[in-house]
Each structure stands twice: as C-alpha cells, then as structure tokens.
Amino acid sequence: MRIGILGGGQLARMLGLGGIPIGAKFVTLDPAADACAAVVSEHITGNYGDISILERFASKVDVITYEFENVPAKSVKYLAEKKPVYPSPAALEVSCDRLKEKTLFRDLGIGTPNFSAVGNIYELKSAAREIGLPSVLKTRTLGYDGKGQAVLRAESDIEAAWERLGGVNCILEAFVPFTREISVIAVRSCTGEIIFYPVSENTHKNGILHKAVCTPDDPMQKAAEEYSRKLLEELDYVGVLALELFEANGKLLANEIAPRVHNTGHWSIEGANTSQFENHIRAVMGLPLGDTSPVEFSAMVNFIGEIPDASSVLSIKGAHFHDYGKEAKPGRKLGHATVRRPNKKFMLEGLNEVLALVN
Ligand code: AMP
User: Which residue segments constitute the domains of the chain, with CATH numbers given?
Assistant: First the structure.
C-alpha cells in the first residue's frame, strides 16, 4: 500500500522506518527539497496550498496521513475528496485551534484549565479578571513548542503580551501549578479497536520537550486512558493520538492533543513491543494493531540545536541513537536517544549518563 505523508520531517522519516518492514511505501510532500524523510520516501517538493502538487501527490497514494497539524484545512479537504485521510480532517480541525480543542475537552467532561476566548485587548483584560493571574495567553492557531504563548503574572504584563503575540485571536487559560506533565499515546484502528501505551512523564526546557520517561503502572494511567478514549470515540479517530496532560492536586487536566505520532512516544521504538510509528501505519493501512506493552524500562532524551557524538551515546549500555539527518540550527530537534534497561533504577542511571552529554 502507498501512504502519502503531508510533511517530510523526522516524524515522517520515523513513520517510514516503522512502516517499510510491514510493506508500506511512502510518498512525502514538503516545501523543503532536503526534507529528512526523503530517504524513506518518494519525495515531492512543493507547497501544501498548490492544487496541482496536491493532485500529483494524491494520484500516487492509496491513503493519506500527516506529521503535523498545521496543514491548511482547505488542502486537507481537497485531498480527502480524492483519497482517505487518517486521522480525519475533523480531528485535524479540532487540534489546530486551541479554542475548539479546549471546548471539546469541556464538552466531553475532560478536565482542562479554565479558559476564555480572547479577540481583542478589552476581552483580554476582562478574561484576566475572570480567570485570575497568573494565566497563560496562547494564540488559537500555529502555536507549538511553547511558541505563540505568554505567561501573564501581573496586570502590567497584559498589554505587552497582547502586542508580542501579534494581536491575533487567542485563548487565555489559567496557569496550572502542576506537579508533573504526562502524556498518553493511543491508537485506534479502522474497526474501532483502541489500545494505549504506558504514559510518559515529560520535562520541557524553554517550552521544548527535553526528556520523556515511560512510566509503566503509572497511578494516572487509567484516568489518562479514559480521557483519551472519549476523544478517540467522539472523533471516530483512526491512527495515533497523543494527549498531553498536567497533573495537579492528584487530578489530570488536559493541555492539548496532537493528531499524530508524538515526540513523547519516541521511546516506543525500542521500549515497546510495537512502536507508535508502526502502529500508526498499521492503523491507516487497516491492519491489526500491535502490542503496545513496554519492553523493560525506557526513557528518551531530545537532541536540540546540537547533536552529541554517536560513539559517546552508543557506549552507554542500553542506549540507542537517532540522528534525523537535519542541518543543525538553534532550537531545532536534530535527533534523540532512547535508554532501555531491565530495571528502573539502572535505566535512570543510564538516562543521567545520556543527559550529561546534552546541554
Ligand atoms: P503547549 O504549547 O500548550 O504545549 O505549552 C508548552 C508548555 O508550556 C507546556 O508543556 C507547559 O510546560 C507550559 N504550559 C502550557 N500551558 C500551561 C498552563 N496553562 N499552565 C502552566 N504551564 C503551562
């Protein structure tokens, strides 16, 4: 089966690496000619809004998926008229707009920080009074890795934050004094089967994911699954869905969803019986899903801006090295390492050894 992927970055590359062994062939579409997924696909260089490019892309594939959520809705609708698109355009629409996303959480009874839509400075001032400070102002669309958001700590921060985010439609949400951030990765098949990976505990640095530690038997596993299941069923979802959550006062609050394979699930390449990448491809190909249970204990560390020497990482017992083949730039995700070891204490020691190699 030929699978079209919108986007040619590292997620598309790892989807290729996960899907090729089970018979998938890939066509990627990305504006960059040197997209790092081009090594696992027939790569088309072009814009997502170019109808003739979309036509060519669709003609080459049986089914279409995507590696990022900011694909223009119009283009996805156009493609969906030609070939099946998984996850559905409806899931994409919800996840690329923070207001629609949080409203869906609220409608489904999924706990989420108190929030309010903000369209101008007056609404922002009134929302700040209602929600209270500190709070977080986020652009409704195009925010990722901590971009498009500002923390408001005092009333005097309000105007500068509004200006800095460009005066666009936003949401203001309560600042959550969380004890930890976790995520659950789920997969739903075309027949409605749903399976979950063990949750991971995630740490961010400068708004970008720094490390994710898989926590089998996490006390919040069941609660996270319950939230995720509601979303998967409501959206009649096919593929991998990531749900990011805050834990505060022993309760979970949903922060956001990603309708795709997710950085907090990269540990699953070596740390689970079937990786999130293979399972996403299985789901979109209509194949049975694979076992998500963990193999030993594992954690993942991102390489941001610079990548350590492969031999230093690989000399650490149980460490696996992933280089995405991208040009180094500050703040750019260039690769990651997974550490997998038979017991938690030993794995955390290995994780510290990897962390000592990154800044
Ligand atoms: P996001 O782009 O929504 O994933 O946010 C990036 C990071 O900012 C999150 O992983 C949190 O560490 C932090 N953050 C986002 N929203 C909030 C919030 N409402 N309260 C506290 N921290 C937040």
Answer: 2-85 (3.40.50.20), 114-174 (3.30.1490.20), 180-358 (3.30.470.20)
Task: Please name the residue whose Cα sits nearest to atom 17 of ligand 1.
Answer: 175
Mutate to test the pocket of ligand 1, among 149, 181, 255, 257 (most ligand atoms within 8 A of CB): 255
- Would you say the CB of residue 101 lies under 6 angstroms from ligand 1? no
Q: Which atom of ligand 1 is nearest to the CA of 138?
A: 3
Q: Is 204 in the pocket of ligand 1 (CB under 6 A)?
A: yes
Confidence of residue 145 (pLDDT cuts 50, 70, 90): low
Distance CA 172, CA 150 (A): 10
Strand partners, 320: 338
Please, are residues 297 and 216 in contact by the beta-carbon 8 Å criterion? yes
- The predicted model gives 266-285 an average pLDDT of 98
What's the token pair of residue 155? 């009333």
User: What's the rounded Cα separation, in Å, for the pair 66 and 79?
Assistant: 12
Closest to 214 measured CA to CA, from 269, 289, 251, 145: 269
DSSP at 31: S
- At residue 272, does pLDDT exceed 80? yes
Give the Cα separation of 118 and 335 in Å (integer).
Answer: 37
| DSSP 8-state code for residue 294 | B
Ligand 1 centre to CA of 135 (Å) is 10
Identify whether the C-beta of residue 209 lies closer than 8 Å to the C-beta of residue 146.
no
